Amino acid sequence: MWVPRFIEGLLSGRAAQRPVVVLTGARQTGKTSLVRRAFSSYEYVSLDLPSEAEQAEHDPASFLARHQPPLIVDEVQYAPGLFRHLKAAVDRHRTKNGQYILTGSQKLVLMKAVSESLAGRADILELETLSWLEVRAAVSKASVMEFLSRGGFPELYEKPELDAQAFQRSYLATYLERDLRQLLQVSSLRDFERFIRACALRSGQLLNRADLARDVGISGSTAAAWLGVLQASGQVVLLEPWFSNRTKSLVKSPKLYLGDTGLCCFLAGIRSLADLRESPMAGALWETLVFGELRRLQVNRRGGWDLHFWRDRNKEVDFLFHRGGVFELADAKWTELPTEKDSQVLQQVADEIGKVKRAALICRAANAYPITKLVHALPLEALPDEWG
Known about the structure:
Elements: H1 8-15, E1 20-24, H2 31-38, E2 43-46, H3 50-58, H4 60-66, E3 71-74, H5 82-92, E4 100-104, H6 107-117, E5 122-126, H7 132-138, H8 144-150, H9 155-158, H10 164-183, H11 189-201, E6 205-206, H12 209-216, H13 220-232, E7 236-239, E8 255-258, H14 261-267, H15 273-278, H16 282-300, E9 306-311, E10 316-323, E11 326-332, H17 344-353, E12 356-362, E13 369-370, E14 375-378, H18 383-387
Parallel strand pairs: 1-4, 1-5, 2-3, 3-4, 11-12, 12-14
Antiparallel strand pairs: 6-8, 7-8, 9-10, 10-11, 13-14
């Protein structure tokens, strides 16, 4: 079963405007299936094949002569030597758009190669796992609780019979063995796995690198390097706080989120819906899910909002949207029936910031409804109408 991706229209639009489009993202997010579907008339070659990667790296001229544009090159990070020759090939037909579609799961390697060789020629998009809105549109019987615990890897919905726990276990092992060994020299994969689990247990919390390093038993510099790898490979995302000159007491540390709630549940030892309902992490997991939905909307629908969080010594708002001097605020709440008491912090921060257009409690309510004049309760399904 194919689950339509909201980013497909944006991807096709960028290919009509640029000679090269680069689609990056973590492994198993559906990059290959998406580009082959969106650009079905293009020739396709995967550098996962050692023979193709060898020629692309060491004899790129012959490789490009054999594979003419329009061309999809999958897992292009395995041949960094190809990029300079791609530049020359693009420049021979500089005004022709959509010549090459490149995909890769190692963002750090890709971005370095693109910035060095394809600057001004390539547009870059990032594909994440499925959003709840995509799953809900394709699977009518899906519930948000099941989605939160199962996660958004497309294969889990294309093949509903797959055991999610076995999939996550295999995914983690593959990530450790394939991506990690190429991105970073790690003396102990076991320590790195413990580091990922520690990050999962902190999803939705302020990032404290010193505490993270201490709990895992590694140095601060190692923790910083490993966190950079998790970001580069799409496993974690950092949300920066809002800064303004008038609020110097605001916290300066970012918040840490796992990229996929299913993987986060697996790493945190949550194995069932019953575990999820009873877990003290339920609120943090809900916030992780909401952040993912908002993040995808900003990319896929070109929302145009700057997304941050707001926190001072006494108050915190999970999400702050800023555009053109206007603010909107939102908190993620695990409850199904938020009340006016739940909205008090939103109201206080709105009064302090000023110019707040509206605020929301994003919750598990069945329908949207007003809580106060400023604050509304919103289910996930209502988010595109607000920030899409």
